[in-house]
Amino acid sequence: MQFSKRSKNLEPSVTLGASEKAKQLKAQGADVLSLTVGEPDFTTPVHIQEAAIEAIRSGQTSFYTPTSGIPQLKQAIVAYLKKYYGLTYDTSETMVTDGAKFALYTLFQAILDPDDEVIIPVPYWVSYGEQVKLAAGTPIFVEGKEENQFKVTAEQLEEVTTEHTKAMILNSPSNPTGMIYSKEELEAIGEWAVKHDILIVSDDIYGRLVYDDNVFTPIATISEKIRRQTLIVNGVSKSYSMTGWRIGFVAGNKELIQAMSDIASQSTSNPAAVSQFAAAEALNGPQDSVEEMRKAFEERMKRIYPLLLEIPGVKLQKPQGAFYFFPNVKETMELCGYDDVTEFCDALLNEAHVATVTGQGFGSNENIRISYATDIRTLEEMVKRVKEFVEKKRKK
Question: Which residues form the Aminotransferase class I/classII large domain (predicted)?
Answer without folding.
Answer: 31-386
